[in-house]
Amino acid sequence: xxxxxxxxxxxxxxxxxxxxxxxxxxxxxxxxxxxxxxxxxxxxxxxxxxxxxxxxxxxxxxxxxxxxxxxxxxxxxxxxxxxxxxxxxxxxxxxxxxxxxxxxxxxxxxxxxxxxxxxxxxxxxxxxxxxxxxxxxxxxxxxxxxxxxxxxxxxxxxxxxxxxxxxxxxxxxxxxxxxxxxxxxxxxxxxxxxxxxxxxxxxxxxxxxxxxxxxxxxx
Length: 219
Ligand code: BEZ
Prior knowledge:
Helix content is 29%, strand content 24%. By secondary structure, it is α+β, with helices and mostly antiparallel strands. The chain has a 5-stranded mixed beta sheet with strand order 5-4-3-8-9. α2 packs across α4 (73-86). The longest helix is centred in the middle third of the chain and has 14 residues, at 73-86. The radius of gyration is 20 Å and the shape is elongated. It starts with 11 loop residues before the first strand and ends with a strand. The model has no long low-confidence stretch (mean pLDDT 96). Benzoic acid binds at residues 37-38, 41-44, 116, 124, 146-147.
């Protein structure tokens, strides 16, 4: 189990783009690692295509993308042809798929889903999303069951929030999107808030406590 704030394991693995050692592969960029139960499965085929089409959005945000699936590089390379055909993609596949045929990474990263098994009874992994910061620490993890495909627009929205809040003393409210108003962090005193966020507004609530402080998104 990796907790938020832990240094993400610096694993070495084979991938469709050759051997990867995570920390040097990421360099000074952010990273997203998203796992798949298995190659040649329908929901995963839609997810890999969605992410391939969204690659310019990840690149724009300085994020390196990797998928992991519990099969071999050979299987991944065959499956990529299906992913491209199904999703109308041409050219080189834009991000690596890491191989994990012995499920070593699935165990290390806590991704085994006990409710999902292969036809031969082998446990499958869930759909994990890990976001790693430039400091190599885990910033976010979300686990979805194998039967629920992910919404990668939500993942982009989360990356925008993580990148903003890693630098500015704000938090982002429910449904926030880049450019929307933010909340001043509760740890900032009223005097500090006046200096740091001159345009912020304190919202009056029945408790009389002045904890809801909105501010335009800091640049
Ligand atoms: C899928 O990707 O379609 C899938 C994989 C494992 C279990 C359920 C669905």
